[in-house]
């Protein structure tokens, strides 16, 4: 995500790093490079020009700080402007005071509306809410079945209408009756998936406008494929003129996107980006935080998002139990396996590593598979319960048996056991280094809440 833009911005900013001070000449050159990087990323021309004009104005008007280099000053200004152009602050869904909150999903065919509808239901359910889906995309073959499959995975109901074994092709009626059904079933959120077209047309716009009039949604979200660049911006303008939507959802940000849509849409239609989808899995959806996105574009990482993902898997009580095991040297391979499983649930390994400051660019071309720990798990699962709890009893014959069971070489079993011993020593040492009367805060290490 934004790899090309990040590289080019980095190159433009490095040109100032060796300068003694900021002046009109070196700023003008840097702004040309930044504008070129933005245009190459398919950012709207006027947006790119406004962006660099604001940076230039602030850079030449800012006080010279002796504590930082010219390059560092510009990075700070560029970061601030990226945050501003991306929307400033994260904006949430407009929730209704009288449930259900009705959320209308709109966009072109192929933008990922139906998949996003399922992801949004998963997102709300994880927050303790009770969503329901409405299948108002009645024209695309298997769209209703797709939505039902997603809903089953999430564990939420879907409202659709069938008569004589056929899906009723009346999206307005489906949406209207879905609101009543959601109210009767005490569902506090109703997400309506609407039909799309390959391009903007009058019939599609009228249909989604009629649904809007029929259900008076609390929120209208425009879903757009981030890989379509300027086309995404033009489509957003068309939809906004008809629907006056409340927010934008960027999908397929894990693809080969140049980032132009994210930087352009907010300024062109003046509507916030509310969600970003970065993968196929149901949990590959995050609220859009301008500050975090700006940090990632500039290669600063995204520690906050990393910690939040960790917090979903680790809590304070778990951290305290783990700390006691480490202190008493009772931390075993079963505990280690449990930590690996929690780490896997945090998401894509490459995305997680990319959130660490200074690491993202180093791993962008590396092939980090999500199944990187499979062979480790296989080795541990090939052990008996006694062997997991007492790794010291694993002798040569046991190692050969474990290797055969896991389908690996004996040396890999030896390597895992050595790494485990080394890790235990390190964790024990870290606990001792905290000093008398002080405990190692594993919750902060693992993302647990204090």
In short:
With 450 residues, the chain is α/β, with parallel strands linked by helices. It has 21 helices and 10 strands.
Describe this structure in words.
This protein is of the alpha/beta class. The chain has 3 domains: 83 residues, Up-down Bundle (Four Helix Bundle (Hemerythrin (Met), subunit A)), CATH 1.20.120; 198 residues, 3-Layer(aba) Sandwich (Rossmann fold), CATH 3.40.50.300; 139 residues, 434 Repressor (Amino-terminal Domain) (Orthogonal Bundle). It is 55% helix and 10% strand. It is built from 21 helices and 10 strands. Strands 3-2-6-1-7-8-9-10 form an 8-stranded mixed beta sheet, sandwiched between helices. A two-stranded antiparallel ribbon has the order 4-5. Helix 10 links the parallel strand 8 and strand 9. Helix 3 crosses helix 4 and helix 17 crosses helix 19. The longest helix has 24 residues. The radius of gyration is 26 Å and the shape is flat. The two termini are 32 Å apart. The relative contact order is 0.10. The C terminus is likely disordered.
